[in-house]
Write a structure and sequence with these properties.
Elements lengths: L1 H20 L15 H8 L16 H5 L12 H12 L3 H11 L4 H12 L11 H10 L5 H14 L5 H13 L3 H13 L8 H11 L3 H13 L6 H13 L3 H10 L5 H13 L3 H18 L9 H11 L6 H12 L6 H13 L3 H10 L5 H13 L3 H14 L6 H14 L2 H13 L6 H13 L3 H10 L5 H13 L3 H13 L6 H14 L2 H13 L7 H13 L3 H10 L6 H14 L2 H14 L5 H12 L3 H13 L8 E6 L2 E6 L8 H17 L15 H9 L2 H12 L6 E5 L5 H13 L4 E4 L4 E5 L2 E2 L6
Parallel strand pairs: 3-4
Antiparallel strand pairs: 1-2, 1-3, 4-5, 5-6
Bound molecules: zinc ion (2 copies).
One zinc ion (ZN) binds next to helix 40.
Amino acid sequence: MATLSKFSGILSILIIFFANLNPLLSENLPTTISASPSVMAYATAPNMTSFFPSPRVHQPPEAAAVAPSVGALVPIPSSGEFIGKSCAGSPEVESSIAIFDLDYPLPPSTAFLTLIHLRMKARIVNSSTSLLTIRGDLYRHRRYSTSCSKNLTTLFNKYVDKTSVSSWNSVIAELARGGDSVEALRAFSSMRKLSLKPDRSTFPCAIKSCSALSDLHSGKQAHQQALVFGFQSDLFVSSALIDMYSKCGQLQDARTLFDEIPHRNIVSWTSMITGYVQNDNAAGALLLFKEFLIEQSGFEEVKEVCIDSVAMVSVLSACSRVSGKSVTEGVHGFVIKMGFQDNLVVGNTLMDAYAKCGDLGVSRKVFDRIIARDDVSWNSMIAVYAQNGLSAEALQIFHDMVWDGDVGYNAVTLSAILLACAHSGALQVGKCIHDQVIKMGLEEDVFVGTSIVDMYCKCGRVQMARRAFDRMKEKNVKSWTALVAGYGMHGCAREALEVFNEMIRTRVKPNYITFVSVLASCSHAGLVDEGWHWFRTMEHKFRIEPGLEHYGCMVDLLGRAGFLKEAYDLINEMKVRPDFVVWGSLLAACRIHKNVELAEISARKLFQLDTSNCGYYVLLANVYADAGRWKDVERMRILMKNHGLVKPPGFSLVEVKGRVHVFLVGDKEHPQHEKIYEYWEKLTMKLQEVGYVPNMTSVLHDVDEEEKVMTLRVHSEKLAVAFGLMSTVPGTTVQVIKNLRVCGDCHTAIKLISKIVNREIVVRDSKRFHHFRHGLCSCGDYW
Ligand SMILES: [Zn+2]
Ligand SMILES: [Zn+2]
């Protein structure tokens, strides 16, 4: 409960914060805010903006430094000033170059790009700035036009000493560093055409460009040439080659090269370890690290191991991919021993490694220990919490990040926060983040765009998700999958399948998760034939072998549609060992169709797989109860007691005027609980007038009738709906999120309420969305 109230507190703060950024939203601000004292402090403050430093939004440095015109290029360093003036006075670049060349004997490569750059009126440069680096910057930020490229070639031909290898080297190096690998390789090839002999600095940069492009063909050619010119034992060349082969997926070739190196240095070792990590062979990476340590200890004391932070980062990345945290702990110990614990990148990777092996607590401790956090540290911590469903913590870290103000948030941060919003159904915060995304011009970013689609789907606004999806210029498999899953969750299986077909038509190849979404959509709507069709097609046509999730969906689909035997047969045919989701789906289906025999088989498997989940005991007890086997019901109850199992508390969230309210079963903690119960009483009377009779079957059959009615009356979703209705204007939609599945009785009651009050009520439970309207639910009572 403490976490829950903390959650609503942070949510409110963020909403207030974003509302201040967005004047359109500020009218929705709550006038009074109850709950935690910290929230009170914010709410009663005269000016809420004063609690937040003005947000520092990340901007690429270039954008910030763009000068309005060449004439405005002051103050600038001496040579730059001169160039600026000469450029401003004469539009002819060539004549400027002439003057420039006479008076300022800078390296020609520096000169020409300064001029191009100034002509583009892009930004102030000084003599120390490498022009090719700027070109790389321009290229990265897509400000690099064809005309600029033409100028570059012309000027390059005119001013660079093409007979000098070092000249070529610097050009290749700068192009590679600037991310223009194609140009770097072109320069390398031009140089070779002139029959110049490349030296040891030429190859590493050329090979790196091949790696960046995953161009194995050119990589092999470069390798051959390196052999021809006698650089096979050069450590930098061989490390670059190892990296190239690994990035191109040729791990064995990389390893052969590595084994042939007579005296490896730390760079060679790191390249090879990284190669294993990149090729999803974490065990291989860790084994190699062990070999490295053994080799090192053969020569000197282990404490004098020659290792750098780059190698440590590679090893830690491997740790994050193996299960079990003992390896990570071991390497962490080594990190401390070697004195790398204060290294920022090492810290960030360590944080991630602990999070991946499930120890969020230690991950957080590592984060807290990092002194000068960068955007990666903040973003990783937010993502860790968001991915693990800890939305409150994710929002808190984001709040701290904004407060801290040292690091600006960016696309990655906003994507992670959108994920947190999706988990908690915080539509208002989500909308504010969307607004921020538009302001920052990130809407077209495929990564952020997909997060927005996902957020709207999970916050119950599938139409808005569709609109956001349609606005995206570039869509990848994740974007399509998010929309398919969204439609599925809302029970719109036809739309989901339509989107899926459209995806195939646009030649985006569906992946493993896409098919999980497709099958789940079929399952939510009971489309058995379509389900079978895609289940078979995924393997035959798309070469994706069905995994646990696909079987889980199919068993759920078949079971709920009444094909229990087919579902059971499918489980027995599975190539992978069925997990608790698969058996759990069958057990739930047995409950619906009152099949005691299969229920017992499923439950037996479930008790072996997961002893701590009391949900299975309750389900089986209910199956027995339906069959009138009271002794077995009692047996289940005793078993649960002996295992010390308690039903996890159900809770529901409802967002009212930008504030999330949390309700537990029979909640009396809410400041307005008296009014809520009063309102609920009135609703119950109206419900009974239209013939509502509480349904008892969802309650474990061990309480007497009167108590059952009481338990049903105070289900958290009912309280949340009642509060939502009484606190919002007629005509608006009330949206409730429940952590468990909505029970049959609440489902019936809410259907009728939607008719009585003539309002739309949306409930997201742990499985799907229910849209209640005019006495009906979008799930068609099939859930
Ligand atoms: Zn209920
Ligand atoms: Zn429903």
